[in-house]
Structure formats: structure tokens, C-alpha cells
Amino acid sequence: MTRAVEELRQIPFDILIGSPLKAAIEAQGLAAKTTIDFIEKVGFIPPKADEDPFFVDERADADGGTVRNVKFKYTKRDEAGAEDTFEVTVPILSIVPIPYLRIDEMTIDFIAKLTDAVESTVKSNFNLETEAKGTYRAFWSPIRLDFRTAVSYQNSRQTTSRYAREYQMKVNVRAIQDDVPAGLERILDLLEQSIRETPVPP
Predict the structure, then answer these.
(1) In this model, does residue 137 exceed pLDDT 60?
(2) Cβ–Cβ contacts within 10 Å for residue 83, how many?
(3) Distance of alpha carbon 28 from alpha carbon 176, whole angstroms
(4) pTM surpassing 0.70?
């Protein structure tokens, strides 16, 4: 038991738990940066070609440029019942889903299985041999008895120790499409109001 406790003390739990948490925080920051890049590249036309309008100057406010629209034409009947061609201008950000991921849950499962077994085998062998002989001697002791005893004892001990270690670590991360922030929702409302339909001149 003592050996197992010492083994557990040597496990770097701060690294095992801290590293996944750090990776989750960095992933959250990367997801936010991806959202900004998507809005910048898809939703706006930069003032200059190949320019990063959001971060052209780190000490100044970002100049997003011009909202990028998509235009398409279609034919329908006007108020007089005659067919006419119309053109619709729609901001792209108002018709495409904006990636806004948030790490909702992270579970860290760490399982340590330590097995310390000691097997001891004792073998004993006891042997007793007795021999008695009778002979004739003098007249005052006509009979003589001789005893001989042989004793043998064998003891053997065998000890086997087995120690096994098994570690398992599982990290489960759950990311969801989070709600749009209030500021971005307000911008999308403004973009939706800018959708316009205009008749195309013949």
C-alpha cells in the first residue's frame, strides 16, 4: 500500500489537469480570432487591396471598409401586372451563418491502476528414523539395547513480487455554436434593414 501511495505522489497532476485547461483556453481564443477573420474577409471590402482593415494599425480603431453585398436579378409582375426585372442587394453577413463557437464543457478522466502482489511459498519436510538393536553383554546386564535416531528437517521459502502500473487519461471537449453577441446582433439588424429591391431600367 505504501508503494502505491508513493507512486501516486509522483504523478504530475498539475500538468495532467493544467495542460488540457490551457489548451481549451487557447482554443477558445483561436475560435474568436476565426470569427473575426470570417467577418473581415467575407463581410467587408477593404479600403485597399490585400490590406487587413481590422488590424492595419494596432493603436487606432479598425476601419472595416465597405460592407460586401451580393446582388441578383429576378423577374416578377409589377403593380400594373406587367413583368418587370428587379435587382436585390443583400449584405452577405445577413444571409450566411457566422461561426461563433464556444467550449461549453470539458471533462478530464484520469484513472490510475496500481497492483502490488506478493506471493510467498513455504515448503517443509521432516523425516525421523529410529533404529533399535539388542545384544548380550555381562551377567549383570545380560541384554544391551542400542538406539540410533536420525532426524532430518528441510525448509524452503520462495517469495515472488509482482507490481503493475496502468494509466488511462481521457479528455472530452464539447463545443457549441454560441449565441451571437449583442453588438454583432445589432449590426446584423442594421444590415437586414439595408436590403433593398430596385427595378432594373429597361
Answers:
(1) no
(2) 8
(3) 11
(4) no
- Checking 25-32 for CB contacts under 8 A at 24+ apart, the result is 27/103, 27/173, 28/102, 28/103, 31/99, 31/100, 31/101, 31/102, 31/103, 31/175
List, in sequence order, every residue forming a beta bridge with 176; answer none if it has no partner: 102
Rounded percentage of the chain residues whose pLDDT exceeds 70: 71
- What is the DSSP track for the chain? -HHHHHHHHTS-HHHHHHHHHHHHHHHHHHHHHHHHHHHHHHHEE-SSTT--SSSS-TTS-----EE-EEEEEEEEE-TTS-EEEEEEEEEGGGTSPPP-EEEEEEEEEEEEEEEEEEEEEEEEEEEEEEEEEEEE--TTS-EEEEEEEEEEEEEEEEEEEEEEEEEEEEEEEEEEEPPPPHHHHHHHHHHHHT-EEEEPP-
What are the grid coordinates assigned to 115, written together?
497492483
- If one compares 52 and 72, the residue with the highest pLDDT of the two is 72
Q: Who contacts 22 (Cβ-Cβ below 8 Å, separation ≥6)?
A: none
Find out whether 187 and 92 touch, Cβ atoms under 8 Å: no
Starting at the edge strand that comes first in sequence, how are the strands of the sheet with 196-199 ordered?
69-77, 83-91, 196-199
CA 166 → CA 70, 128, 154, 198, distances in Å? 59, 51, 40, 71
